[in-house]
TrEMBL record:
Domain of life, source organism: Eukaryota
A biological-process GO annotation: proteolysis
Gene of this entry: Dvir\GJ12274
Protein name per UniProt: Peptidase S1 domain-containing protein
Provenance organism: Drosophila virilis
GO molecular-function term, one example from the UniProt record: serine-type endopeptidase activity
Keyword Ion transport recorded: no
Positions of the Peptidase S1 domain: 23-259
SMART domains registered for this protein in UniProt: Tryp_SPc (SM00020)
Signal sequence annotation: 1-16
Amino acid sequence: MKLFVAFAALLATAVAAPMDGRITHGEVAREGQFPYQVGLSIAIGNSGAWCGGTLISNRWIVTAAHCTDSADSVTVYVGATKIKEEEPGQQRIHVEKHGIIVHEDWDAAKIVNDISLIKLPAELDFNERVRAATLPKKDGRYSTYEDQQAYASGWGLDSDKADAVSPVLRYVEMPIMKSSTCNKYWAGLITDKVICMSTKGGKSTCSGDSGGPLVHKDGDINYLIGATSFGLALGCERNYPAVFTRITAYLDWIEDHSGVVNK
């Protein structure tokens, strides 16, 4: 079993080549369907990578540590569905390295504490295309979300043969898997700090989706419950569960560093 955290697609491939990939077997997102979704074009020396992220306020973004731990700067795509076009309402915001906060206990070898924050240089104006997701309530009574439906979205690859991220935002709706079941696939890696999504039928996050949102909808509220972390290096269509950083495990950390909290 070969693990990979590299859901971050290399920009040398993702931008220079035709961008014909997407979340595997996903649906095309409508404009404004996922207003909390952001795209991250990450500068790393002379190269770069592409990841996703989630607005949790008009100033702060949650993403994955493995996306940003080597970043020199980030260009944040806000209000976007088509990342190769300058759509009406789309913004591209440059963030310097000092605006990136990587979890101090992030361990790439063990893939633990895979979470980071990005602070935008100025507050956003919310509209129908730009709006924050809601953090779970910080009340100590956290749902496991097992067997409940959740949405994962991003510009990741279409298939295991694709070599470029998608030009359009896509999503999958799949159930959250029980941790005990997920651990049968990922023995020793499934703790109370991660959450797993079923990928039955090859519907999965893939390279380029890293750091992006896993959201549980409760009426009109979009609760952010996960940030895309890792999957199987042998392919995204092999029905191995996709694994996300569990947001309820990091509510204190998020509040301490950003001040964002849902009491």
